[in-house]
Predict the structure.
Amino acid sequence: MTDKITVDGRVFRDENGRERIFCGVNVCDKGSYDPVTKVRSYKRSLDDGQLDTLTASGVNIVRLGITWDAVEPRPGEYDDGYLDAVASMTDELGKRGIYVFLDMHQDLYSGFGEANVGDGAPLWACLTDGAKPKKTRTVWAAGYFFGKAVQRSFDSFWANAPLGGRGIRDRYADMWTHVASRFAGKENLIGYDMMNEPFPGRDGGKVFRKIVSGAVSTVLFDSRIKKTRAVALALNKKERHRLLDVIDGDLMRKIVSGADGIIRKFDTQRYAPFLNATAEAIRSVDRDGIIFTDCSYYSNIGIPYCGPAIKTGGERDKNQCYAPHSYDIFVDTPLYRYSSSSRVGMMFDGHAKAAERLGVPLIVGEWGGNSEGTQWLPHIEYLLDKFASNKWSWVYWESWAFTGNDALREVLTRPYPRAVTGDIVRYAYDRTGRTFILEYDQKEVFDAPTEIFVSSSPASVECDGEYSVEPIGTTQACVLKIRTAPGKHTVKVTLR
């Protein structure tokens, strides 16, 4: 069973009035293109063993990725069989008490048919203005920086270019109306993420060039960079990977700041109208689902998100949240093991300011990565601590983090407060001492208890209320349920 979740100022609350924290994972089927049949198919699902692993790891939310191509393979024709399969997965997650929000995923706008460039829009919705899509040979994101077909498709989309008598962006909203009408009644469906990492189009190419220029200028002329050390690292093959260590969060912010104006213009003049119109379409069939706002691709790396709060019906929508992403610049490369907490910390500090400005809760919609070995795991621990200190919910990229990497799963699986009777003051986990602390302020009597996910059997529990321990399956993980009277409370849990 899952409670209805709504937004209350800067926090999520359930129907019992408890403040809620969500920790989870992305499950995204981008499709697989078959060059023989020339068909992109979608088959991704999680088996019972994987679902049990997620439950035992404390996962209570999934960002479930779908694509426009899969939903609407031909203009105005929707694949309800595909949506039935997505609904079935949503139901299976719901049986385990896991919430879902739908993510309309895209990378590089589309797969572009035989070009098989990325994922997202169906081929019929790719208005490239004559540009031919090309698959990149380096890191996948290069298609954003140099791909004319990608950039022009986005430009056509933001301009709502006509297609068959109706604007392409309007068709996207129609598609969302169909999807939302299919999922609106689902108990564990928390809301809708309207587009993954929107890209500015040709202006995005300008941003990339400004960032490159800013990097060169900073490295050459900023006195904070020790030139002798940088040269020595560049000349040493074994140490060359440490060259970017000289660029900390402050310097990274300086490098990307030259493009702030371009992204501000995109956020306010192109992206905001899209968000309002698409949210309006969803609200025509679902008045209560939470609207999740992604930041643009470039706000992933430190350029502030500047869009206003979403409006529907001419008024500020009451159920919306900010769901930004951020990754270190090494992500998607073997060098991810050298990720910088300083750089990524700067990016999330910027997101904190955006959420405060918007006056909404923040859930980190994507973060993390994968690499060989374990030397990068302290970076993950740093981010988990940062999220907890801000009382942020989060969704890791992607499900293999729990089902395919034991060392990473051990780091991600840690105590956190799922539901708190009142207002959370703070919570924190000391991995070395294996202790978890929660402080909260309860102003009234609650019928439901405070619930804390505990990753292994507690050796001791200190609290001023009655508590019970509810095991999760046959694992050592459990849910600690505490009933307290109104007042200020501190809970301390020591793990075995």
User: Anything to note?
Assistant: The chain is about 35% helix and 25% strand. The radius of gyration is 23 Å.
